[in-house]
TrEMBL record:
Gene3D superfamilies per the UniProt record, alphabetical: CDGSH iron-sulfur domain, mitoNEET-type
Plastid in keyword set: no
TM region(s), chain numbering: none
Protein name: CDGSH iron-sulfur domain-containing protein
UniProt GO molecular function: 2 iron, 2 sulfur cluster binding; metal ion binding
GO cellular component terms, A-Z: cytoplasm
Any Pfam family matching the protein: zf-CDGSH
C-alpha cells in the first residue's frame, strides 16, 4: 500500500551537493538530538563538510586540495 501523493515527501539528490527535502522536517541525529525546520525546502548535507551539519552550509562548493 502506498501513501497518498499529498503525504509523500520528495527528496531530491543533487550532484555533488545536498539532498533537498520539502519541509517542514524533523531530523533525528544518531545521538538523539532533534533539529526542526519549517523551511519550504531543507538542504541536508551529504558531504559532511558543513559547519552546520546536518544542514548544508554550501561548504560542498569549496574546492579541496587536489581538485582541478
Ligand atoms: S552538501 Fe552542502 S555542505 Fe555538505
Amino acid at each position: 500500500m502506498t501513501a497518498p501523493d499529498r503525504d509523500r515527501r520528495r527528496v531530491l539528490f543533487t550532484p555533488d551537493g545536498p539532498a533537498l527535502i520539502q519541509g517542514p522536517v524533523e531530523l533525528v541525529l544518531p545521538d538523539g538530538k532533534t533539529i526542526c525546520s519549517d523551511r519550504f525546502m531543507v538542504a541536508i548535507c551529504l558531504c559532511k563538510r558543513s559547519r552546520n551539519y546536518p544542514l548544508c552550509d554550501t561548504s560542498h562548493r569549496k574546492r579541496r586540495r587536489g581538485d582541478s
